[in-house]
């Protein structure tokens, strides 16, 4: 073997290792569905961009395909939200990328060379918002699945009929895989700002389009909680459905009436679960709160009240047994 052969081999190894990096770059697709041009509730579009949130790696490209019947743009920055455009908010481009208008049947691609989280929207239809996450940097602030910062917990939502307010907090505020998350939530009557106790509900969590958690419960004293663990990263929807009164206790409230359509009794929250680089398996045991909380309250009351009553009885007995007990001034003092 001579040095020429060695040189060629090392050159080949060098070359292949670099071309290998190229091979890993992926091409992802986001579809602009039919109906995205229409922000009304009767729009056939379930999302404005499908998927609304996409996770990629540095060097990957995303192609947006226009399957709608109108031209659209893919413009980095913040859109107006579903209703903002009605009050003259047409979104704010941040200049990072901009497709310009592209027509039905056309597509536009962009290669992401930087890490980061990029929100984007359509400048023609500013309710259309999407989110690209490149190399999933875990942010130090909580946000919803569209990347909008959550300024304050609890997050508050109302049922469609406006009769029930549901407040939710999740701890920790930024959710990672394999780390226990506590969802803490309360039901209120927004008309009187009173706690709505004994409301039954179904809690459903979906992630990447799949159901990952389902449970039912009753807000015993106006609130409840659940412990949840996520194995996968990606956007999640936390949905409460069929929120209805259970029994007649608590305040007088319209929320106690059965709604005409149970579909009006749901609220939804979103956020993103991040990949936990420090932990890749479960270490916590997940224990859910018992739904016989009421029963435990009664036991707790019994445990406290019975000894307390006995104690008072004994005191009373001692007092009445020795009516001329030592006045407090004549207590025996240690020598
Ligand atoms: Cu558009």
What report would you give on this structure?
It is a single chain. The chain has helices at 3-24, 81-84, 293-321, and strands at 27-32, 53-56, 61-66, 75-78, 92-98, 107-111, 116-121, 129-134, 155-158, 165-171, 175-176, 181-189, 194-195, 199-207, 210-218, 223-228, 234-245, 267-274. The strands form four sheets. The protein has a five-stranded mixed sheet, with no helix packed on it. The termini are far apart. β14 and β15 form a beta hairpin. It folds into two domains: 3-136, Cupredoxins -  blue copper proteins (Immunoglobulin-like); 155-274, Immunoglobulin-like (Sandwich). With 335 residues, the protein is of the alpha+beta class. The radius of gyration is 30 Å and the shape is elongated. The structure holds copper (II) ion. Copper (II) ion binds next to loops.
What's the quick description here?
With 335 residues, this protein is α+β, with helices and mostly antiparallel strands.
Layout of strands and helices, then pairs:
Elements: H1 3-24, E1 27-32, E2 53-56, E3 61-66, E4 75-78, H2 81-84, E5 92-98, E6 107-111, E7 116-121, E8 129-134, E9 155-158, E10 165-171, E11 175-176, E12 181-189, E13 194-195, E14 199-207, E15 210-218, E16 223-228, E17 234-245, E18 267-274, H3 293-321
Parallel strand pairs: 1-3, 2-8, 11-18
Antiparallel strand pairs: 3-6, 4-5, 4-7, 7-8, 9-10, 10-12, 12-13, 12-16, 14-15, 14-17, 17-18
The structure holds copper (II) ion.
Residues 72, 122, 124-125, 128 line the site of copper (II) ion.
């Amino acid at each position: 073997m001579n040095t020429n052969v060695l040189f060629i081999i090392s050159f080949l190894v060098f070359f292949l290792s670099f071309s290998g990096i190229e091979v890993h770059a992926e091409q992802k697709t986001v579809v602009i569905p039919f109906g995205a041009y229409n922000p009304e509730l009767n729009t056939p579009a379930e999302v404005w961009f499908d998927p609304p949130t996409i996770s990629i790696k540095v060097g990957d490209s995303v192609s947006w395909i226009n399957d709608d019947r109108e031209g659209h743009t893919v413009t980095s920055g913040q859109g107006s939200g579903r209703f903002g455009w009605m009050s003259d908010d047409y979104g704010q481009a941040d200049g990072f990328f901009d497709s310009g208008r592209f027509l039905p049947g056309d597509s536009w691609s962009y290669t992401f060379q930087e890490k980061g989280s990029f929100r984007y929207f359509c400048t023609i239809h500013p309710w259309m918002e999407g989110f690209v996450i490149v190399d999933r940097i875990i942010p130090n602030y909580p946000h919803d699945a569209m990347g909008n910062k959550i300024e304050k917990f609890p997050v508050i939502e109302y049922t469609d009929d406006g009769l029930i307010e549901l407040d939710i907090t999740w701890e920790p505020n930024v959710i990672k895989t394999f780390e226990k998350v506590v969802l803490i939530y309360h039901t209120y009557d927004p008309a009187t700002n009173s706690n709505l106790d004994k409301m039954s509900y179904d809690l459903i969590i979906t992630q990447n389009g799949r159901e990952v958690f389902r449970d039912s419960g009753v807000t015993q004293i106006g609130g409840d909680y659940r412990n949840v663990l996520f194995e996968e990263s990606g956007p999640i929807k936390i949905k409460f459905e069929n929120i209805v009164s259970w029994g007649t206790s608590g305040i007088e409230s319209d929320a106690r009436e059965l709604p005409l359509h149970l579909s009006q009794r749901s609220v939804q929250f979103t956020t993103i679960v991040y990949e936990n680089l420090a932990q890749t398996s479960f270490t916590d045991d997940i224990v859910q709160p018992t739904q016989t909380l009421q029963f435990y309250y009664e036991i707790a009351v019994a445990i406290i009240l019975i000894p307390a009553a006995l104690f008072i009885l004994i005191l009373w007995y001692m007092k009445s047994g020795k009516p001329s007990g030592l006045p407090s001034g004549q207590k025996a003092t240690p020598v």
